[in-house]
Sequence to fold (153 residues):
Amino acid sequence: MLIDSTAEFLGLLPAHSRLLCLDVGGKTIGLALSDGMRSIASPLETIDRKKFTKDMEHLQGVIQKHAIGGLVIGYPVNMDGSHGPRTQSVRTFVSTMSKHITLPMLLWDERMTTMAVERVMLEADLSRARRAQLVDKLAASYMLQGFLDSVRR
Fold:
């Protein structure tokens, strides 16, 4: 179920449950995981999107394996705060996903996450191929850490 407010989202989470962050793209879904205390985000994996039902089966397995209590989903708002085709695509994905996964879900502004992660990877002198392998799960981790830091304040 999609929750509109951060406070309500946090109130629905079981104590010490982990969060899973999704960076949903057209071809991949980057995943990041919080610790049980919800203070540290770690990159988990990148799912190569195939069919929606296969993607949901994979996500459900991750949710069970890691005792996930809620999902934080990257919301690709335009730099000026407006909503474009990508935001609608994510909303459609979340709406369809909520028929398969009943955990609380929160959309989180992901502006600049991919750019920030790309910059760090360039500074680390990673090859283009290696950056392509890592960018989605690292962006999800960066996004989730931003969420965790904001709610801890």
